[in-house]
Records
---
Amino acid sequence: MRVLLTGATGFLGRAVARRLVDAGHAVAAFVREPDAELNTLGVDQVQGDLASLDAVVSAATGCEAVVHCAARVGSFARIDDYYDINVRGTDHVLAACEIADVRRLVFTSCAGVVIEHGDLNGVNESQRVAQHAPTPYLASKALAERHVLAANGPGLATIALRPHLLWGPGDTVWLPKLASLARAGRLRLFGETGKKIDHCYIDNAADAHLAALERLEPGAAISGKPYFITQGEPGPAEGFINGLLRAAGYPIEMRRLSATMTRTLAATAGARRTFGGADPLLTPDTVALFRQATWFNIAAARRDLGYSPRVGTAEGLARLSAHLARERMRGR
């Protein structure tokens, strides 16, 4: 089928584009600027902005489905920016589906929409969406997810996928920050020891999007539902961080910040970024993700989507290590 893909130049969007092309789908990427890698994949590129409903409608016309990965991420945007892109942009996608008679919409949400206060140990999709999200980004994603699932009906089938802590080759979020701090000797762990988290290797998240797309249609059992997408291998947060460090060629980190220092650094992250330039690792968003247990039951995704993490964590770390070694060789 012909699929409109938003966010195709992002970390997840690129992986989804590759997976859709490999599966034989015709992909039209909705982009702000032309992208060389997407050209190499043979993806059609339609320039536009989610802020323009006309542009989204034009891009969606002639498509049978939309995979909506685009989002404003990060910790330092204005609340209006998160709302304009993550909520209003999603509303434009929903409107475009109705106007252009698109009958399938796969929406990339995030597991963080259920994070509020307290540990989340193996919760499933019955866990309520947070009433008071800890950060503007998570609040905007929660609101966008509500709009998408509420739009499900006879004319448009919708589904929300909730991957958690994406990582792997091409990561522009976690690993660059960890590596920068490790090089400078300034990396510290934080949060309570032993709190379990789960995460998601990038190719597994892309597989889940393909699986959802190919099973979704009006009236399908999966329509109108959210699904958690992870490795299904929960473990201590420090194990995840040190696994990434080892893959990047850095020693593991055992030093840990106190709870008071963690709160102080997170609260002052914006000011430190303004005066120091680089994006700090310790931000309100990071603390929200790592201060408590956040791992999820993926039985529903296994049952309904046929989702099974194709790349285990150990294999994913080996792939990441090999990728980074090749990148270092190219840089010499």
Note: The CA atoms of residues 153 and 218 lie 7 Å apart.
---
Amino acid sequence: MLIGELTWINAGFEGIVYPTVRQVVFDAVGDRDFPILANVDFGHQVANIPLPIGVEAALDAVAGTLALTEAPLV
């Protein structure tokens, strides 16, 4: 699972205690066993690296790497 870099989270809500992103993710995935890599530069932020849909990839959450294992079709 890839989680993009979350900015502006809880912005403007000072004084309100929210769960951390880590808590929300672990609550959502439950006891499933798969790697999770967070703060990846993709999505709607300044570093908007596109990720192809349906292309196989290798994720190593310990090393913090993601590599496409097949070429995307254009």
Note: Residues 21-29 form the longest helix (9 residues).
---
Amino acid sequence: MAAFEVIDDEGVSFVKVALNDETVRAESGALCYFFGDIEIDAQVPSLGRVVRNLLAEQSVVRPSYTGTGTLYLESSVGGFQVFEMDGNTWILEPGVYWASEEDVTLKFFRERVMTSLLTGEGFILLRTKVSGKGKIVLKTNGPVEVIELKDQRLATDGNYVLARTEGIAYRSKRSARTFIGSVLNNEYRLRVYEGTGRILLSSYPYWRQLLSTGKMPKRA
């Protein structure tokens, strides 16, 4: 299995990937440099895939790297989280996917139209859906907390959730019982996640991320 290592140096983070006759996939533009016997492959996507990727605000092409050597991905003032897929299916927010092993499958998941409209994310809202077994790297603005829900509900005032397992439903609701109450508390709508499964939550940024922007960052 490919070895992923997150390295912190000089106020930034980056991912080092050690390959031993293996293949990994990465986000478009994520490569910094590599050494060793590694081949890059970027397949021409179908028209349907191009349209889906653009609607999901994801890269149209995610190149693969095959061979033996060491791969270094671009650095960030944010951070990266490596975790092991255990056969479950996860739904990722836009801009979160960074890299993964070959056996991790990437597809799309469409949110309900009403949910996407109420959260101001357009008529069609597609997420990246990952499944299978293997390591995956997520890009994050801050520390990541794993939250287990057992027929429970989590509500957030903002896009602090990085990913959720397929058993967690997502919707939008008023923050208060009445319209006036929701307006007065300055938190009109909440993002609600409910069901049974796991959630990856990043509720506050790294200090370096905050200093670089001067405000609480928003994922692309």
Note: The helical segments are 47-55, 113-118, 179-184, 207-213.
---
Amino acid sequence: MDRIGPSPLCWLEFDANGGLKDAGAAAAAEAMLNSPGIADFVVLSHGWNNTKTDAMTLYGTLWRNVAAALGRKNPAEIAVAGVLWPAKQFSTDFDDAAAVASAAGQTLSVGDGDGGGDLGEDALEAQIKEVEDFFGPAGAAVAAAARKAAQGIDFASANALFDSAFAAVTPPADDPELAKNAELFTPTESPEVALGALIQPPQISAAPELRHVSGLGDAVGNLFSGPRAAVGRVLNQLTYYEMKTRAGVVGAALGGHTLPALRASPGKRLHLIGHSFGARLVTAAARALPAHSPFEFFSLTLLQGAFSHNGLSAAASGAFANVVGRPSGPISITHTHNDRACTFWYALASRLSHDTTKGFGDADDVFGAMGANGAQKLAAGAIVHDVSGQAFAPQRRKVNGFLADAYIVQTAAGDAHNNVANPTCGRLVAAVLQS
């Protein structure tokens, strides 16, 4: 049996369709759960843009900090399952990279293209090959159409690109958020016009209250402009959409099949914890859990969740509205506009248009993210807003929003979005487990 710090550990590795890749994983999980003294079962999920090594580092660092913060609870009595799912390690979005460089007053080079000109041919070809590998047979059609459109946008080339992209994905029928995202691949106007609209870089006008924490100022300039950039934006959206979809598919399998099938002695409490798209995954698992499962579903923790901030709202027809009230303990959500990925790039990728609404990325944005703004449009009394900083006291049977401006911050290692394994986040998770 593996260990993660003082706690026993097993791995649940899924394929893109939600099947367990290791036939012995369920048996290993059952053996761990039925070991003497185990009282709690924690399931951790990584997000998009993670390799297996990244996921292991995330889980190890976070759990070390959780274990150090546990008071009355013995971490040796907590079993941990690390979810591994095929979240593609995708090259940094070129608009994001250019925006950061622009904000810092630097000049950016990507491939053989510089900020302000078109995306370099080498950079686009690398992106096309990644998409081709990722989608398999369907990816070959996307790749061929992308190369054609990059040479010159006309009706035929744009139409082929959108058609091949739409054929590569399957929009879920029960998820309004994903259905709206998929609209890019079935443009209502001429395909040539739709693709042409992506030639120019997105102009992001932040809500005034976001500018002091975003690091991007009023707008983003010096981004790539040209037909290759337009094609690249479609490919970024395609991969983003597939990862978002896949998180839901794997989550539904985890909650609907894998966890209910485990044979465990009665009385064990289940805790679901996810980061980024992994927050979407564990929320989908919570939605799929049957009423009578082997566990007491106690808590759901979303660390900088990359899904709609209306996802838990019945009033907004959120895909996961039925999750509210299901855990016997707390639902806990971190959010901060320090997180550029959730505040800006999630909102941009979810709309991929040139709309520059006043509320771009904030709580009024229909495309806003959970990790930026916390849960929105919940029924009165369902949510508790904690803006105190680090005095963590999550309430049972409530959605608890934790403003994380003070501890989920940009570091030398990267954007705030990935800074969720720090000691303060560890204390928050420990407080959830002991609430």
Note: Confidence is low (pLDDT under 50) at residues 105-115, 211-222, 353-358.
